[in-house]
Specification:
By secondary structure, the chain is of the alpha+beta class. The chain has 3 helices and 9 strands. The radius of gyration is 21 Å and the shape is globular.
Protein backbone atom coordinates (compact mmCIF):
# COMPACT_ATOMS: atom_id res chain seq x y z
CA UNK A 1 0.00 0.00 0.00
CA UNK A 2 2.81 2.41 -0.76
CA UNK A 3 1.86 6.04 -1.43
CA UNK A 4 -1.72 5.63 -0.24
CA UNK A 5 -3.52 7.87 2.20
CA UNK A 6 -5.19 6.40 5.29
CA UNK A 7 -8.88 5.60 4.88
CA UNK A 8 -9.85 7.65 7.93
CA UNK A 9 -8.26 10.51 9.79
CA UNK A 10 -9.52 12.03 13.02
CA UNK A 11 -9.58 15.80 12.98
CA UNK A 12 -10.16 18.00 16.01
CA UNK A 13 -12.20 21.11 15.33
CA UNK A 14 -12.24 24.32 17.34
CA UNK A 15 -16.03 24.34 17.64
CA UNK A 16 -16.25 20.72 18.87
CA UNK A 17 -16.97 20.35 22.56
CA UNK A 18 -14.39 19.01 25.03
CA UNK A 19 -13.52 15.41 24.26
CA UNK A 20 -15.45 15.48 20.96
CA UNK A 21 -13.78 14.71 17.67
CA UNK A 22 -14.95 14.87 14.09
CA UNK A 23 -14.24 11.98 11.73
CA UNK A 24 -13.18 13.11 8.26
CA UNK A 25 -12.94 10.73 5.30
CA UNK A 26 -9.81 10.70 3.18
CA UNK A 27 -10.06 8.41 0.16
CA UNK A 28 -7.38 5.81 -0.39
CA UNK A 29 -6.17 5.85 -3.95
CA UNK A 30 -3.33 4.18 -5.81
CA UNK A 31 -0.38 6.25 -6.88
CA UNK A 32 -1.36 8.67 -9.65
CA UNK A 33 -0.24 7.60 -13.13
CA UNK A 34 -0.17 10.44 -15.68
CA UNK A 35 -2.32 9.71 -18.76
CA UNK A 36 0.74 10.07 -21.00
CA UNK A 37 2.11 6.92 -19.34
CA UNK A 38 -1.01 4.86 -19.99
CA UNK A 39 -0.16 2.70 -22.97
CA UNK A 40 -2.69 0.21 -24.31
CA UNK A 41 -1.83 -3.46 -24.62
CA UNK A 42 0.40 -4.04 -27.66
CA UNK A 43 1.03 -0.32 -28.25
CA UNK A 44 4.53 1.01 -28.91
CA UNK A 45 5.21 3.95 -26.54
CA UNK A 46 7.78 5.28 -29.02
CA UNK A 47 5.55 5.13 -32.12
CA UNK A 48 5.05 8.41 -34.01
CA UNK A 49 1.27 8.29 -33.33
CA UNK A 50 1.88 9.78 -29.87
CA UNK A 51 3.13 13.01 -31.47
CA UNK A 52 0.64 13.26 -34.33
CA UNK A 53 -2.17 15.79 -34.59
CA UNK A 54 -5.78 15.08 -35.49
CA UNK A 55 -5.21 16.77 -38.87
CA UNK A 56 -2.28 14.46 -39.65
CA UNK A 57 -4.22 11.31 -38.74
CA UNK A 58 -7.24 12.34 -40.81
CA UNK A 59 -5.07 13.33 -43.78
CA UNK A 60 -3.30 9.96 -43.78
CA UNK A 61 -6.58 8.04 -43.74
CA UNK A 62 -8.13 10.32 -46.37
CA UNK A 63 -5.09 9.76 -48.62
CA UNK A 64 -6.03 6.07 -48.63
CA UNK A 65 -9.51 6.96 -49.88
CA UNK A 66 -11.25 5.63 -46.76
CA UNK A 67 -12.80 8.94 -45.64
CA UNK A 68 -13.77 12.18 -47.36
CA UNK A 69 -11.53 15.25 -47.39
CA UNK A 70 -10.83 16.16 -43.73
CA UNK A 71 -11.88 19.75 -44.45
CA UNK A 72 -15.47 18.40 -44.59
CA UNK A 73 -15.24 17.07 -41.02
CA UNK A 74 -17.87 18.02 -38.49
CA UNK A 75 -16.50 19.15 -35.13
CA UNK A 76 -18.16 17.22 -32.31
CA UNK A 77 -18.72 18.17 -28.67
CA UNK A 78 -15.78 17.22 -26.49
CA UNK A 79 -16.50 18.53 -22.97
CA UNK A 80 -16.16 15.70 -20.48
CA UNK A 81 -14.99 13.27 -23.15
CA UNK A 82 -11.78 14.24 -24.99
CA UNK A 83 -9.78 17.19 -26.34
CA UNK A 84 -10.81 17.08 -30.02
CA UNK A 85 -13.49 15.09 -31.84
CA UNK A 86 -14.43 15.09 -35.52
CA UNK A 87 -16.77 13.14 -37.76
CA UNK A 88 -15.83 12.37 -41.36
CA UNK A 89 -17.84 10.05 -43.62
CA UNK A 90 -19.77 8.92 -40.54
CA UNK A 91 -16.64 7.79 -38.69
CA UNK A 92 -15.87 9.61 -35.46
CA UNK A 93 -12.29 10.33 -34.46
CA UNK A 94 -11.30 11.36 -30.92
CA UNK A 95 -8.02 12.75 -29.54
CA UNK A 96 -6.77 13.36 -26.00
CA UNK A 97 -4.10 15.99 -25.25
CA UNK A 98 -2.31 13.83 -22.71
CA UNK A 99 0.05 16.57 -21.57
CA UNK A 100 -2.85 18.76 -20.45
CA UNK A 101 -5.48 16.38 -19.07
CA UNK A 102 -6.50 17.39 -15.57
CA UNK A 103 -6.24 14.72 -12.90
CA UNK A 104 -9.70 13.48 -11.98
CA UNK A 105 -11.41 15.12 -14.97
CA UNK A 106 -14.07 13.29 -16.98
CA UNK A 107 -11.72 13.48 -19.98
CA UNK A 108 -9.00 11.67 -18.02
CA UNK A 109 -11.51 9.08 -16.81
CA UNK A 110 -12.67 8.49 -20.39
CA UNK A 111 -9.09 8.07 -21.63
CA UNK A 112 -8.16 5.66 -18.83
CA UNK A 113 -11.28 3.59 -19.50
CA UNK A 114 -10.47 3.53 -23.22
CA UNK A 115 -6.96 2.25 -22.58
CA UNK A 116 -7.89 -0.25 -19.88
CA UNK A 117 -11.15 -1.62 -21.30
CA UNK A 118 -11.58 -0.29 -24.85
CA UNK A 119 -14.82 1.39 -23.85
CA UNK A 120 -16.03 4.75 -22.65
CA UNK A 121 -19.04 5.30 -20.42
CA UNK A 122 -20.23 8.57 -21.99
CA UNK A 123 -20.47 11.22 -19.29
CA UNK A 124 -20.98 8.48 -16.69
CA UNK A 125 -24.59 7.97 -17.80
CA UNK A 126 -24.34 4.26 -18.59
CA UNK A 127 -24.17 4.74 -22.38
CA UNK A 128 -21.19 2.46 -23.11
CA UNK A 129 -19.44 2.83 -26.46
CA UNK A 130 -16.68 0.55 -27.72
CA UNK A 131 -13.84 2.20 -29.60
CA UNK A 132 -10.77 1.20 -31.60
CA UNK A 133 -7.76 3.02 -30.14
CA UNK A 134 -4.31 3.93 -31.38
CA UNK A 135 -2.05 6.07 -29.21
CA UNK A 136 -4.00 9.10 -27.92
CA UNK A 137 -6.68 8.59 -30.61
CA UNK A 138 -9.90 6.60 -30.76
CA UNK A 139 -12.24 5.68 -33.60
CA UNK A 140 -15.96 4.92 -33.48
CA UNK A 141 -17.35 3.41 -36.70
CA UNK A 142 -21.01 2.57 -36.09
CA UNK A 143 -22.15 5.28 -38.55
CA UNK A 144 -19.26 4.86 -40.99
CA UNK A 145 -20.38 4.78 -44.63
CA UNK A 146 -17.60 2.61 -46.08
CA UNK A 147 -15.56 -0.56 -45.52
CA UNK A 148 -15.31 -0.61 -41.71
CA UNK A 149 -12.69 -3.38 -41.66
CA UNK A 150 -10.40 -1.44 -44.02
CA UNK A 151 -10.85 1.74 -41.99
CA UNK A 152 -10.05 -0.04 -38.75
CA UNK A 153 -6.89 -1.57 -40.23
CA UNK A 154 -5.77 1.78 -41.65
CA UNK A 155 -6.50 3.58 -38.37
CA UNK A 156 -4.52 1.03 -36.35
CA UNK A 157 -1.58 1.39 -38.77
CA UNK A 158 -1.41 5.21 -38.68
CA UNK A 159 1.71 6.48 -36.95
CA UNK A 160 3.11 3.06 -36.09
CA UNK A 161 6.82 2.34 -36.33
CA UNK A 162 7.75 0.58 -39.52
Amino acid sequence: MKNRQPLFHVVKREHAGPGQQVLAYVAASPEFVPPSQLIGEGEDPDAPIWDMTMDEVLAEIAAQGLIADPSTALTLATDGLCTDARQVSGAEFYWWDLDNLKEGSMEETSYKSLKAEGIINLYGNGHIISYVHNGPFALWMDLYEGDAKALEQAFRAVGQSK
